[in-house]
Amino acid sequence: MQFERKDLISLEELTAGEIELILNTADSFKEVLDRPIKKVPALRGKTIANVFYEPSTRTKLSFELAEKRLSADTISFSKAMSSVVKGESLRDTAENIQAMKVDIVVMRHGSSGSHRFLSEFLDASIVNAGDGQHEHPTQGLLDMLTLRQHLETLEGKRITIVGDIMHSRVARSNIWGLTKMGAEVTICGPPTMMPAEAERLGENGVRIEYDLRRAVEGADAVNILRIQLERQKSKLFPSMREYLQVFGVTPEVLESAPEGCIIMHPGPMNRGVEISQEVADGDRSVILEQVTNGVAVRMAVLFLVAGGKIEETKI
């Protein structure tokens, strides 16, 4: 099966078959990362631009490493060091990058829908590395890859997402991806941090819970989100200390979860706020596995949007 889309913008628009194709391709690329020489010629001759309008550590480094592992040529863009500070528009910036004969643009942008906007007039493939409060599809995919490795399947598994649901693009990608793959999703957080579309999500089978201990009961995995203060226009809870007491995931909270429940976090973590030190570094945590899987997933996405097929390419 070949990925028929030019771009990867959203998990909401993908089918379960397309998601499975990406995850299976990522599984194949994981083997490359364990080789003595961690490099394949799959994208030799392709040029990829990393265009980041917002700060990033894991996502940016992960994409850059994935591109190098695939033997692609890369260029990087930083808003602070670009003509954007002189007033250049997003469209002009993107068209100038494409004029350099770039094949794929990996972009993070603070405006929801910015990737869809560019995809309408750029010939280059667009890969969404996060757009505003909309989606972060490759994070959702790497979370699903990690879950699948521990749970074998996503069908019928219970996944609880805890934290600042309203402002989280990670939450939206996880919700869309997991429900398409047959998982049962519960979202939990303060009422002030629930999105306006929470009721619509509930109609699609997503359970909404405001009691953290009830939310983790029966969960196969708990994915913990940080409070995104940079996206909040007003204070939505009294204090960090109170947040930890009510919605922070601690060893005491996990007493309500099954013994095999795993703990995830997309990063960066605010230790002592949404997650305790003991949980972050505990035996249930697969947080660093998520980081490792991020490279394999991004290799798979870049390979597939470039038109690659695993069965036709010797990896």
For the largest sheet, list the strands in their spatial order: 7-6-5-8-9
Please identify the structural class as seen in this structure: alpha/beta
Question: In percent, how helical is the residue content?
Answer: 25-40%
Stretches with pLDDT under 50, minimum 5 residues: none
Order of helices and strands: HEHEHEHEHEHEHEHEHHEHH
Mean pLDDT: 92
- Please state roughly what percent of the residues sit in beta strands, choosing from under 5%, 5-15%, 15-25%, 25-35%, 35-45% or over 45%: 5-15%
Number of helical stretches of at least 4 residues = 12
Taking the sheet with the most strands, its summary is: 5 strands, parallel
| Rg, Cα atoms, Å | 19 Å
Measure the end-to-end span.
16 Å
Shape: globular
Number of strands: 9
Structure characterization notes:
38% of the residues lie in helices and 14% in strands. It has 315 residues and is of the alpha/beta class. The strands form two sheets. The chain has a five-stranded parallel β-sheet with strand order 7-6-5-8-9. Strands 2-1-3-4 form a four-stranded parallel β-sheet, sandwiched between helices. β1, α2 and β2 (73-78) form a beta-alpha-beta unit. α1 crosses α5 and α2 crosses α12 (287-305). The chain is globular, with a radius of gyration of 19 Å.
